[in-house]
């Protein structure tokens, strides 16, 4: 009995350690995005280089957490809710790693834009707005994961619709900008790549929030309407 209790406590500790690692990885990814946007707006090339170079840290955390999850599955053979938690972790870190890739992409586009100082750049007001929306989605998704709280899930899905609309607005604006002055086409396209990277960050944050529903309720709510998700969350 004592041995069984000890094993159970050790298993719980391992699961909690993995959860903590996910949140640590999430914090690093949030920081990467903030720094990438800050570097872009302030034309800070050294900061862009830092974001690009630090992407290996995100990749390394994904590999380590994935290995830890594999060990838990092999050694502990989790079932039911514990297995769902481990599977949620594996899926979540995949999305976090991809968000990290998008942050590095924003920094690389920023470096290209920095080389075009002779061209008047469009305002970054819209980029800053869509980035703040995407960052809030990530924060809420990680909060939902940490607290096992489904209240944020529908909010994040709704916000993803706002991010998509903001991206379409930026795209229309940049198309008009290119038509008015063809010399700005390369610059405008690079800004469009930045906006698309942020839109993809929103998609990954939405995925992460939906995984929490699976972890808590065992229901897969991917590819369903936001209204269905809201009903599931309220049940």
Number of helices: 8
CATH H-level homologous superfamily name: Phosphate transport system protein phou homolog 2, domain 2
From the alpha carbons, calculate the radius of gyration and give it in angstroms. 20 Å
How big a fraction of the residues is strand? under 5%
N→C terminal distance: 37 Å
What is the CATH topology? Answer: Methane Monooxygenase Hydroxylase, Chain G, domain 1
Basic shape: globular
H-E order: HHHHHHHH
Assign the CATH architecture: Up-down Bundle
The residue ranges in which pLDDT falls below 50 over 5 or more consecutive positions are none
Query: What is the C-level CATH assignment?
Result: Mainly Alpha
Name the helicity range.
Answer: over 70%
Q: How many independent structural domains?
A: 1
Domain PhoU: 23-108, 127-212
Function: Plays a role in the regulation of phosphate uptake.
Pfam families: PhoU (PF01895)
Subcellular location: Cytoplasm
Structure in a nutshell:
It contains eight helices and no strands.
Secondary structure topology:
Elements: H1 2-42, H2 45-53, H3 55-76, H4 80-114, H5 125-147, H6 151-180, H7 185-217, H8 226-234
Helix pairs in contact: 1-2, 1-3, 1-4, 1-5, 2-4, 3-4, 4-7, 5-6, 5-7, 6-7, 6-8
Keywords: Cytoplasm, Phosphate transport, Transport
Family: Belongs to the PhoU family.
Pfam families: PhoU (PF01895)
């Amino acid at each position: 009995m004592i041995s069984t209790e000890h094993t159970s406590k050790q298993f719980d500790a391992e699961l909690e350690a993995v959860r903590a690692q996910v949140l640590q990885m999430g914090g690093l990814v949030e920081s990467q995005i903030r720094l990438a946007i800050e570097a872009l707006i302030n034309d800070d090339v050294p900061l862009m280089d830092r974001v690009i170079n630090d992407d290996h840290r995100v990749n390394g955390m994904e590999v380590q957490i994935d290995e830890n999850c594999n060990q838990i599955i092999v050694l502990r053979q989790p079932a039911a809710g514990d297995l769902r938690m481990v599977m949620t972790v594996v899926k979540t870190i995949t999305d976090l790693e991809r968000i990290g890739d998008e942050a590095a992409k924003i920094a690389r586009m920023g470096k290209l834009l920095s080389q075009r100082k002779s061209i008047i750049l469009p305002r970054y007001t819209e980029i800053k707005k869509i980035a703040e929306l995407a960052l809030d989605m990530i924060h809420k998704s990680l909060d939902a994961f940490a607290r096992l709280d489904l209240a944020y899930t529908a909010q994040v899905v709704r916000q993803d619709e706002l991010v998509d609309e903001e991206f379409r607005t930026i795209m229309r604006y940049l198309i008009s900008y290119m038509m008015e002055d063809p010399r700005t086409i390369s610059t405008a396209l690079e800004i469009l790549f930045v906006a698309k990277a942020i839109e993809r960050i929103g998609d990954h944050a939405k995925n992460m929030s939906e995984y929490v529903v699976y972890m808590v309720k065992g229901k897969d709510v991917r590819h369903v309407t936001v209204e269905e998700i809201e009903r599931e969350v309220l049940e």
